[in-house]
Amino acid sequence: MNSFAKITAQGSYVPEQIMDNHDFENIVDTSDEWIQQRTGIVERRITKEDEYTSDISYKAVLDLQEKYQVDLSDVDMIVNATLTADYKTPSVASYVQAKLELENAGAIDINAACAGFTYGLNIANGLITSGQNKKVLVIGAETLSKITDYKDRGTCILFGDGAGAFLVEYSEDETSFVASDAGSDGKKGHNLYCSELSEAMFDEALENPGFIVQNGRGVYKWAVGNVPRIIEQTLNKANYTKEDLDWFVPHSANARMIESICDKSGIARDKALKSLEYYGNTSSATIPLAIDLAVKENKIKKGDLVLLVGFGGGLAYASTLIKWTL
Ligand code: UT7
Questions:
Q1: What is the CATH number of domain 4-171?
Q2: For the whole prediction, is pTM greater than 0.90?
Q3: Per-residue pLDDT tens over the stretch 5-19
């Protein structure tokens, strides 16, 4: 008997409060024009002070449940991708499990920064096809505003809060997962980090305890140099070419960067689905948010071949090539 993993529902949640580019003009030396030209971001969502990653993760799952009327009572694993957990422990996934009252579900968080959601999907595929689990919730959720230094114009204009969730289920006859790839360039990790308050692995971290520090140029160069290779490797694994792709969903960090990746890879720019314009860079949530928007706009259709590529802090990456099954 075959054992496949199939995506059966997707949902999202973003906080109500909007912070647009003009709001930043009052905080740091910047302009709407600079932000739009250099990043493509127009606005982003910000959580309330007492609203945490587990809260928005839970709401993304409720959205998924309401839209697709799926039964979640027998979910047996929750994988929460995040770098902004409410606490070091318990995990965000454990809080989500409690909020959903899923007594028989396992719960783990994974931290692969902006590659977290695609890692999570590949883990769900592995858990299901190996026979360990039958129903897995994969959530990408961040409250980056809580670890953003609003005095640093180079980073504060980039980040936002939001959550996206997929339900992945066992199937005897249909798979969503076609091919995947993953890797990391840990020697370049210093280009993007967030120290604990008491830790300082990198010298500069002492000056920025608890905030995201990024060498934007460094990450940009690495991504444009490496993501095209990751795209090709993933497609090759399944004997597909870029022409076969219906949609490309890269991590939504920067519109110019995505255009460069598309041009270098020979993928038409209008095949790239993004979430950054209205949500900014939401790390592990950018990919499910971009897909959620595309589903709402009736862009993605059942049977479409979609390549997801998450990349960022680590510097880690994970790709997954899927057949859209909704
Ligand atoms: O999500 C994880 C992965 N992260 C990424 O993929 C991020 C990739 N990198 C980027 O998106 C871009 O590098 C940034 C958007 C972060 C920065 O854009 P950039 O075009 O690389 O600008 P830059 O850092 O090279 O800075 C250019 C200039 C500098 O001024 P000088 O030295 O030329 O006088 C900056 O000080 O722009 C200045 N600048 C700003 N000016 C106005 C930096 N931030 C701002 C700002 N407003 N907010």
A1: 3.40.47.10
A2: yes
A3: 999 999 999 999 999
